[in-house]
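ok so i was messing around last nite and threw this chain in just to see what happens. nothing serious, just curious
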Amino acid sequence: MGNRMRKLMWTTALALSLTPVMALAQAGDLAIVFADDSTSDVTFDPRVTQSRHEEQVIAQVFDQLVSADADNKKYPGLAKSWTMAPDNKSVVLQLRDDVTFHDGTKFDAEAVKFTFDTIVDPATGSQGAIDMIGPYEGSDILGPYEIRIRYKRPFPTAIDSFSENELSIVSPTAVKKLGGTGFAQAPVGTGPFKFVSWEKNKQIVLERNPDYKWGAPFYSTQGPSKVARIIHRFIPNAATRVAALESGEVHYTDLTPPLDMRRLGDSSKYDTMTGVASGVPFSLMFNVSRGPLQDIKVRQAFMYAVDRSRLSQNLFFGYAKAAWGPIAPSTPAYWKGVEEYYKFSRETAGKLLEEAGWKMGSGGIREKDGQPLQIYYPTLLEPETSVALQADLKRVGIDLKVENVTKAKQDELIINNQYDVGGIRWVYNDPSVLRIPFDSGNIPEPGKFKFNWMRWKSPELDKVLAAASTAASLEERTKLYADAQKMIMDAAVFMPIHDQIQTIASSKKVVGARFAPGNWQVRLYDVRPAN
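result:
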């Protein structure tokens, strides 16, 4: 079957599936279709997820205690105001009294306490929020719309954490009625859109919340959204997403290929927007508990062998730059010293491997004690990048075995320590994100899914990260996070590859989409017809 015929069949099928949307649009209400590059969504419970795909939906359905714009400037959200204690161990919030969840439950202090208490309950199975919530100790309800959040130790970035999607406030009524699994499949928040339905591997349908009147002041829209319905389509193939945009079946496409971004941006029919994400760039984590990567010289050689600048230019055509440290340059407290580490040199890589006892063998792959230098990388991220890494590494005699796996398979391999390399990216607006992959307490094990996939224990780094999280001054905090970045790079356990970017292309028939903090998720509340 030819590509043209496949495209025609797909377009026809999609057009038929969108008939209700088109009818809605023709009736005078705006219905928009957002094309997402994933089909692997599992939960829309903000307390549980750590998936950027799931958070794209969560960003439309839920609100946070503190609102933040794309530049991470803070505004009142579900909390009207807040007062941090002088010792940074508690914060008192004054809450709005005019907010209602989609199921009719009144938003109040009880809902905040319920959300936070269940995040730290192991039965919830939190993967993201459990790290965002910090050293949470408990909550004291001071009145129907007043609450004190307490921490076990100073947590000066508490207000920042309140603006994260993972700490969105959930309906206690819905959670108790539906249970954790049911709520994950039919989430109930206070946001500008209500959940309607989910056809797995196909689409999510959301509809406007007609009662919404508590949006942040930075929005152009005040009151209910101009968008009556959102169809969140799962279209994993990038070429298919772009074809759907150009044929008019979708209004927004995420992770649009760079060449298409350039072409569409030059057209009078389309707009583009690019977000350089804060947090952890796309990177590799070296498992130091097994195999060849136990040797620091092999890890260093791996990094020297890859021409990251050329790789990024070839794959992203200037949209994404090479990354050099464990946090992106757009993240506060980024230390420029990381840019001096592990600059591309095949000669240095080869020398290190020779020193480590790995001699060039047959087929151009190095050997030691009769074993080839093979490194196993199971991944569900960026297959094109994996191919480029393989090519560079083979030139110095390293055989990178890449296997594209499902998330369920990846998680199984991580939990059971059956991998050599793991890929990570994490959108977060604060350098405290470092504790998620680097804290010694975050090594995964059966029954405990965490993100220190390096399985690296460093009590010294743990102390620095803990001290940085409680630092009273910005200067002290910045210095401590610089120290942490230096320690990570010296240990050669983590290889940054490139900045993580979100490339959005859209029809010029609609305007008003904006990035959420971190420059990844796209908020659709403000979308409206262009004319």
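not much to say yet. The CA atoms of residues 35 and 253 lie 5 Å apart.
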